[in-house]
Amino acid sequence: MLFRSALVAVRSAANFSARRLYASEAGSGGKLRLNFALPHQTILKDFEAIQVNIQSSEGDMGILADHVPTIAQLANGGVIEILAADNKPRKFFVEYLFILPHTAQSSSPVSGGFAIINPDSSLNINAVEAVAVEDLDAEAARKGADEASRKMNASGASEKDKAEARVEFELFEAVLAAAKV
Amino acid sequence: MSIVGRSSGALGQARGYATLKEIQMRLKSISNIAKITKSMKMIASTKVTKAQRNMETARAYGQSANSLLSHIEVVQKEAANPLVVAVSSDRGLCGGIHSSVSRAVKRYMANHQESSIAVIGQKARNQIQRDYRENIIMHFDQVTKVGPLWLEASMIADQILGSKAEGGADKLENGGTIVYNKFKSVISYEATPLAVHSAETIAAAPKLAAYEVDDAILKSYEEFTLANSLYWALAEGYASEMAAKRTAMENATKNAGEMITKLTLTYNRSRQAAITNELIDIITGASSLN
Predict the structure, then answer these.
(1) pTM attached to this predicted model
(2) Looking at the partner chain, which of A69, A113, A126 has a beta carbon nearest the beta carbon of B210?
(3) What keywords sit in the KW lines (chain A) (predicted)?
(4) What ipTM does the predicted assembly reach?
(5) Can you give the residue range of the structural domain that contains B122?
(6) For residues A151 and A164, what is the distance between their CA atoms, to the nearest angstrom?
(7) Count of domains in chain B?
(8) Fewer Cβ neighbours under 10 Å: the N or C end of chain A?
(9) In this structure, what DSSP letter does residue A95 have?
């Protein structure tokens, strides 16, 4: 119900603005143009999506066409959900486990990627690593979580090792949560 | 015997070419070289197809990651000492790859004398060192040993930006350019610049106001984009290098083949001359008995 009214709102806004706008910022026509790319794989290119849900460092966001332009940092261990006209479920788990030497002590979390919405309703999502939720291995994640919590609580470990283990643990927990949903 | 052969060649064409044995040895070594260059060409060929596919993906990724910059119409900062990152590798036998990048960097330096240079790859470093040794502030070796990796690009980006944590200046604050070999086709590549910007420059872009973003995120975005741009440059450079290596090995094999043909003719002529001389000796000897 909410979804349908949101679509109607978007369509009427596009019609209204089409009459007043001149050339450059062409109307989106009610659809998001999504580019979802990884360094080693292009998942989606110029894909027409209706809505994209992402988990950013500032909280969860639901992005529709004509969303206000935004630069959002993807949360490590978040899930990206893409809703399209063909109703095929597309959910991806974003992770970036490698911890850079000098950021382990910094306050900002390691970036899993960025999502950028532009004024022309094109959405660019760049992630370092994203796995389709169907491909997540819950068993391996459970083992990893146990291993990481053991490292976290080990008595002889340095602060840096404990911090790394904590990040690993949270990530594996996030994988388990995503795999269940 | 070989010494006699060589000196008689230097003294003029008295004895003509080197001895048969010498030509044979040369023929053998050249055909070994031809075998080696042929197999190197085949290895490079298989690597080119894979490298090209990776490059297409990396290009799509890099362009997507950089697309914000054209939307906000960011302006490259004009400063006295920007940063130049030269993207090359440690490997030789790949044609003009390294000189392509070094020449582009030197052309840039001619207009920006105070720039700092970060060099990726030993070969390019050797060439740039000849003219701009003092400007090189950091260098990276053993990169792309198994092909381009985002991890490597991320670590290099971390090094370039990381010194701020130790109280040094952020190397990107005066703007930067990555110079890499853009892959145009299997037989051509071109040294191309790619601009990289600091968070402050991005914040100062005319159309950024339309975007919702806070400053800490912009700093993260600066680091992420530098890593992405470096990865893109490494991937294109690697693909160009494999293609150039393939071409270089193909040319080497072709040249070796030509040398073998020429030498074989020379060898046969020498062999026939030797036989003719022997026949003349025998016949003269025989006829003098009559």
Answers:
(1) 0.81
(2) A69
(3) ATP synthesis, CF(1), Hydrogen ion transport, Ion transport, Membrane, Mitochondrion, Mitochondrion inner membrane, Transit peptide, Transport
(4) 0.78
(5) 49-247
(6) 9
(7) 1
(8) N
(9) -
